[in-house]
Amino acid sequence: MEAEVDEDDGTFTNISLADDTVDGESAVLYTKQENELSIMNCDIDGDMENQVEMEEKTRLINQVLELQHTLEDLSARVDAVKEENLKLKSENQVLGQYIENLMSASSVFQTTDTKSKRK
């Protein structure tokens, strides 16, 4: 059986009249101010833990976003390098064919029969 506390008076919180022990331990009476202070301390501790958790989550989210942007930038860079590589390969093929045509047209690079020149 518990007594209710007059909210205007506020001297003590609920008092159990049935037993002097709670869970095998001695019952302790707290003033309303002590009880509120205890609750406030729990709230502050909980709020601080929540704040630390939120800061950690925010930091991790920002880190993930930064890594995603870095990955996107790297992916775009890889695509650009691939395109540049294909372009350079194509240009090299054109230049190789051009050089081959010049060599075949020039008498300097013609194959000569060394036996026919000696006779």
TrEMBL record:
Cytoplasm found in the keyword field: yes
The entry's keywords: Coiled coil, Cytoplasm, Golgi apparatus, Membrane
Chief subcellular location: cytoplasm
UniProt name for this protein: Short coiled-coil protein a
Entry's Gene Ontology cellular component terms: cytosol; Golgi membrane; trans-Golgi network
Coiled-coil region(s): 57-91
Places the protein is found: Cytoplasm, Cytosol; Golgi apparatus membrane; Golgi apparatus, trans-Golgi network
Organism, scientific name: Seriola lalandi dorsalis
Membrane topology type: Peripheral membrane protein
